[in-house]
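thread: overnight batch results

M.L. [08:02]
morning all. the overnight job finished for the chain we discussed friday. pasting input first so we're all looking at the same thing
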Amino acid sequence: MNYKNIISEFLGRRIFLVKRKTLIVFLGSFADFDSFEYSQQLSRQLNRLAKNSVDLILIGIGNEKSKEYFCRFNNIDIKNVVALRNADLHEKLNLNSGFVSPLPAMINLLIMCAGINSRGTIREVLRGYFGDIDAKSLFDFDDDINIGSLFLFKGKMFDIFSKKQNLRPFELATRRLMNMIEILSNWNIYVPDSSFLTQRGATILFNENDEVVYEFIAESLLGYSSNMSSPLSFLDDFLN
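M.L. [08:03]
and the structure it wrote out:
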């Protein structure tokens, strides 16, 4: 598939004018758990991407207001994010639309949360509670853990389970709860149209010649990478 031509048709050729590497991440809805988690992973890599002359572009479904909230919460430069009002571009790229039925989109999403037509989701949910020795920790010792406006505890509380730097039990589940509270508290902003709640995304890395050197097409909820323990490990093959 000629990703460059299709993306240029929708977004204009300005994306590929400069001869640099370009990492394009297709999100589903800005309200998607995957969108939040993946963007938080990318936020940690922004300096590395800049050092290696990689332009980052995130493309999500929503509007300018949902994009604004999304970027602020996930520490992403709003200049790197494109908001689409529908999934036309996703469909043109043959990305997975998730579980779709005559039922309301929210019900379809909950069905995917149960692992139906979303293989690997239950395993990923459990990883959030049990931890992962192959993944890095999410919270530093002095990080404030807030659920909405309510302060709960410091990151050091996770040392009860382990003082190593791997992902500890309940750490990822806590992060997901924080994300969920943010989404639900601002639901009407994040979800101007619920039709696209189940839409899955993709990751495409172009080299300086606009050639695709890496691609991953998401097929399930909470499955935005081929290696969920280290979602951005694919960059190691292309960056210093």
